[in-house]
Amino acid sequence: MPLFSHRHNSSALPTSTTTNSSYSAKDQKLHKLNSKISLPILLFSLLSIFFGLAGIIFAVNAVRHPSPLPVYRCGRSEDTFRAFYSLSDSRKLRDNVALLDRPKLLGFVGIQTGFGSADLRAALRSTWFPSDPDGLLRLEQATGIAFRFVIGKSKDAKKMAQLEKEIDKYRDFMLIDVQEEYLKLPYKTLAYLKAAFLHFEADYYVKADDDIYLRPDRLATLLAKERSNPLTYIGCMKKGPVITDPKMKWYEKSGHLIGNEYFLHAYGPIYVLSANVVASLAAARNNSLRMFGNEDVTIGSWMLAMNVHHEDNRAICDPRCTSTSIAVWDIPKCSGNTIFVTCPAVTMFLIITCSAVIVFLTFSKNYLDM
Hints:
The chain is an alpha/beta fold. The chain is built from twelve helices and ten strands. The chain is 45% helix and 17% strand.
């Protein structure tokens, strides 16, 4: 017998077939596992790329076409001048220029007027304010400034009918949806600024009363001046004691919130606000701004809250016609919005005198040049 017996146990030694099959099974499991993992990752990657591209497209579009600031309106408003020129979509203006919905201007001047001020409007139309739509358009093209009379509404049907006749004749009004009341002048001013910002893209917005003589050419020069501060408030600045006696004319019901003396603010008959200032006021929600008893004080309080630059300019409150006058009106005798009630003769005298002085100076210059 052989010293050693060699027995072959097939189960003890692995064969090559068994080894290959076991590795194949592991590879299949890993492949399936990788497939399960890679599918969600692939979907997530695709979604990320999609949202990334969408974000880039949205950002580029937002930069190229910025959305306008929201305007919280006090009600319906209408520019009767542009409504007149927009009766037909095919109608064109002079020089074959189409009428824009929100024209870009150097300035917009809203002449605040009322139902009892027809004579004052007539006086302005006979002097510096154009008396027909074509003249109004020529003035706008020459100065870069648009001019409108701004008026609210009345419950008196007769007054509204008279206003409609005047609108049909001159087409120089901006109509706003507020009741014409002296005690509601701050509300009218806010409604005017919202309407002006809605209808016109101007660098400056001017609030003026219908009792002033204005030089549009000199106003354009003032507005065209370079300014470093985009938040600008231009006017004849003043301070004064707060009137807390209800029997007095300039009584301030909320005077306890102010103190003994008013803060610096512009006289009410005319002042200028830059576009950024008006944009903020236009975006303010209705009833979110405090209203004081006096309109000029109310505006002044908003300007303090907005940290604007106060630019004092006495050329827009000149009591006499001079070579530098921009706006002429009488501060000492008829300051504020009461001039058409207390001193209409003074107003008419100022307007007629200014016109006569300008005509005389023009005639003299032409005579000397001959």
